[in-house]
Design brief:
Layout (H helix, E strand, L loop, with lengths): L2 H12 L3 E5 L27 H4 L2 H6 L1 H11 L9 H11 L3 E6 L5 H5 L4 E3 L2 E8 L5 E2 L2 H4 L13 E5 L8 H13 L2 E5 L20 E4 L12 E3 L3 H5 L3
Parallel strand pairs: 1-2, 1-7, 2-3, 7-8, 8-9
Antiparallel strand pairs: 4-5, 4-6
Subcellular location: Cytoplasm
EC number: 2.3.1.286
Function: NAD-dependent protein deacetylase which modulates the activities of several enzymes which are inactive in their acetylated form.
Length: 238
């Protein structure tokens, strides 16, 4: 075990007020591609750029094209939590981890057993009718070809935050609260370029900011501990 992993383990062992803030890189070891790596979602070629397709205005104007992309690139069946998800769930059960703040929409933290999960960008596992408001589960969209529709005739949309849409105020407030109060803030699997989510790090007031990411981020110089490894492999050691 190298010195950086030993330091992380020591900080975790000594703390009962840890917050984890994660992005797409947390789920890559489960087989879900991230967005900005060489092989990620944004490297693929479509008729429209992914940023355009998963925007509010495009969804409203071209729902068929939106759902074609959504089914192809944002629905992942039979994926399972990896070592990062499971270790974080264990840390919560041990009374050490207070909350997970995630940019991911895949629900893998909950599947691993985590309870306090703040989903900044929503979840593919929650869906609702845009006309009558009826709630639907994962299968309502995942198992439907084309545009999914409610019995009332309205379009069923995923409860995810699209480009041009704001984040949920209550979720953001909770995230700020837990990050402000944290003793140890572990940030992993995120390039920290998507705002306002990335700006949440600025609310951290402690001296144990851990950044775990394969690539460089704009916040590396502020980290008290910087680990450039796969996050699942790191958590497997702590």
């Amino acid at each position: 075990m190298d010195d950086k992993i030993q330091t992380l383990k020591k900080w975790i062992d000594e703390s009962d007020n840890i917050v984890f803030f994660g992005g797409a890189g947390v789920s890559t070891e489960s087989g879900i591609p991230d967005f900005r790596s060489v092989d990620g979602l944004y490297s693929q070629k479509y008729k429209y750029p992914p940023e355009t397709i998963i925007s509010h205005s495009f969804f409203m104007a071209e729902p068929e094209e939106f759902y074609r992309f959504y089914h192809d690139k944002l629905i992942y069946r039979d994926v399972k939590p990896n070592r990062a998800h499971t270790r974080l769930a264990e840390l919560e059960k041990e009374g050490k981890l207070r909350a997970i703040v995630t940019q991911n929409i895949d629900g893998l933290h909950q599947l691993a057993g985590s309870k306090k999960v703040l989903e900044l960008h929503g979840s593919t596992h929650r869906n609702y009718c845009m006309s009558c408001g009826k709630a639907y589960g994962y299968e309502a969209v995942a198992d439907t070809d084309g545009v999914p529709r409610c019995a009332c005739g309205g379009i069923i949309r995923p409860d995810v935050v699209l480009y041009e849409e704001g984040l949920d105020d209550d979720v953001m407030s909770d995230a700020v609260y837990f990050i402000q109060k944290a003793d140890v803030l572990i940030v992993g699997g995120t390039s920290l370029v998507v705002y306002p989510a990335a700006g949440l790090i600025n609310y951290y007031r402690g001296s144990k900011l851990v950044l775990i990411n394969k690539g460089a981020t704009g916040y590396d110089s502020r980290a008290n501990l910087l680990i450039s490894e796969k996050i699942g492999e790191v958590f497997a050691q702590v």
